[in-house]
Specification:
Layout: H1 11-20, H2 30-44, E1 50-56, H3 59-66, E2 72-79, E3 97-99, E4 112-118, H4 127-137, E5 138-149, H5 155-169, H6 182-191, E6 195-207, H7 212-220, H8 237-249, E7 253-264, H9 283-289
Parallel strand pairs: 1-2, 1-4, 2-3, 4-5
Antiparallel strand pairs: 5-7, 6-7
Length: about 290
């Protein structure tokens, strides 16, 4: 990212976290597996072949899901820490692994027909810049798919931390990352120069029997706090205990809002939006015509 981009996330710390907990990832990968299957189902809706595809983030896990569709010829994987996910078997060339950082993608222009960003964009300081690099690497009319946590993710744990620290310390520290809202993510696709952008989200709620298990899962996923302005010293025991108590009193549930992005690299043959004022039916009439019958 450029010097003008605010540095919210400590990317060096992210790399340390991913490598430190790489071996434990598969003990905490339930959420990633569900999201990978959803991405594979969405990809299967495209009735076209992809000669060259690139997966960015937790590559082996995602490639395992994407191997099932037959429309991909060559499938490359990448992660900020390298191939920390291990190897998989398959007929498609899925053994080529790159070490790539979403913020610095040395990819040739128009070199990919498909790029899938898997649970990594939310930790970038310059999300638009990362998207632009991916769009530049796509061939004209190439497909971009992404999945990332969005606005309501970990809202229960965030509230518990804020309440506990406010009560015990009289002030608060950042523990949970900020997550972009669905509408903002759709706007970012347009700012990055993508065509035909679509953004939607789903809510996944995880029930925990023990509140501390959520913290273990986040650590095992490599999703520990990497905010630059995070508290560097250890969290006080009484604050942690109160946070977990509040989380349990709130039902011991963790919300994950997962946003899915779909877009294409621009191409001259793509449908063009109608010019402003060219519509022959009013918006109110369209709503009336399409109103659901109760």
């Amino acid at each position: 990212p450029s010097d003008s981009v605010p540095q919210i996330f400590d990317r060096a710390r992210l790399l340390v976290n991913r490598r430190r907990h790489a071996r434990a990832f598969y003990e905490h990968d339930f959420l990633h597996r569900q999201i990978a299957q959803e991405l594979a189902q969405r990809l299967a809706l495209f009735k076209q072949d992809f000669k060259t595809a690139l997966c960015i983030g937790k590559s082996a896990l995602l490639r395992e899901a994407l191997l099932k569709p037959t429309q991909i010829t060559t499938l490359y994987g990448s992660d900020i820490g390298g191939d920390i996910d291990g190897d998989i078997d398959g007929d498609i060339d899925a053994n080529a692994t790159l070490i790539l950082d979403e913020e610095h993608l040395p990819l040739a222009a128009a070199s990919c027909d498909l790029i899938v960003s898997f649970m990594g964009l939310h930790n970038t300081n310059d999300m638009v810049g990362a998207m632009r690099q991916m769009r530049n690497a796509l061939a004209p009319d190439g497909v971009f798919l992404a999945a990332l946590p969005a606005g309501r993710t970990l809202q229960e744990l965030r509230t518990a931390f804020l309440t506990a620290e406010s009560d015990l310390l009289g002030g608060v520290h950042p523990h949970i990352h900020p997550f972009a809202d669905l509408r903002d993510l759709g706007d970012l696709l347009q700012r990055a120069g993508f065509a035909l952008p679509i953004a939607d989200s789903e809510i996944i709620t995880i029930d925990y029997t023990k509140p501390e298990q959520l913290l273990y899962d986040l650590r095992g996923m490599g999703e520990s706090n990497i905010l630059y302005n995070r508290q560097k010293r250890f969290l006080r025991r009484d604050v942690l205990a109160r946070t977990l108590q509040l989380f349990q009193e709130g039902g011991c549930k963790a919300t994950f809002e997962i946003c899915y992005l779909v877009a294409r690299a621009p191409h001259e043959n793509q449908p063009k939006p109608l010019q402003r004022g060219s519509a022959t039916t009013s918006f109110a009439q369209a709503l009336k015509n399409n109103k659901r019958q109760s």
